[in-house]
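Researcher: Please predict.
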Amino acid sequence: MTYSTSAHTGLPDPDLDRQFYEGVPSRRFLAWLFDGAITFAITLLLSLVSFGVGFFFFPFIWLMTGFVYRSLTIAAASATPGMRLVGIELRDRSGARLSPGLALAHTALFSLASASGILQLVSAFLMLGSRYGQGLHDMILGTTAINSPA
């Protein structure tokens, strides 16, 4: 699929190719819920396998599970399984899929924003109102989520 790129980036231009950005914020939210449920289930299983000891460290294990899950899946496919399920993927400022290093940085900044309710709210509002639908961590890294090209 070809698209018109922005004069400043290699990303699809939101004014000329709106189909790449339509519905992305709500899809990101659904992906976040799906991925959260998956990492919760993995953490629950790890806590049970540890004869219950993991329940004492459940928040930390969930945080680490989510970090590894997001980093590895974004590095492999530029999207988490939840993102792939809803048909979106992450792209860097040149329009390419995320490299493993950028996937790790994206996950780290996402995790930091998630740890702060205020930063998470700011990020959500930015996704709804910014030209490329970017959250705070996306703006810092120059990444954005788009509907997966056919």
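Model: Strands lie at 88-91, 144-147.
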